[in-house]
Design goal:
This protein has a single domain, classed as Arc Repressor Mutant, subunit A, CATH 1.10.10. Helices cover 44% and strands 22% of the residues.
């Protein structure tokens, strides 16, 4: 059985991790923009879930998207 790793979300229920391609698709920005935003504190930090694997808890991405819905919809320059 192949299951994705989980993290505890805000509700205490298991939260799945999203890999970078899915995060980029949901957020609508490039990988370079994410890498620039993370150290600036403008985007949740990635979690290392394996030797060469990083991902974000889905709840963190959903919360970020809800908090930034206006700016995402306006497609402000990165």
């Amino acid at each position: 059985m192949n299951q994705e790793p989980t993290a505890a979300g805000n509700s205490g229920t298991p939260d799945r991790y999203l890999r970078e391609p899915e995060v980029l698709e949901r957020v609508g920005v490039s990988g370079i923009t994410l890498r620039r935003w993370e150290p600036q504190g403008r985007f949740p930090k990635r979690h290392k879930i394996g030797p060469r694997i990083v991902a974000w808890p889905e709840s963190e991405i959903n919360n970020w998207m809800a908090a930034n819905a206006t700016s995402i919809n306006q497609k402000a320059p990165s």
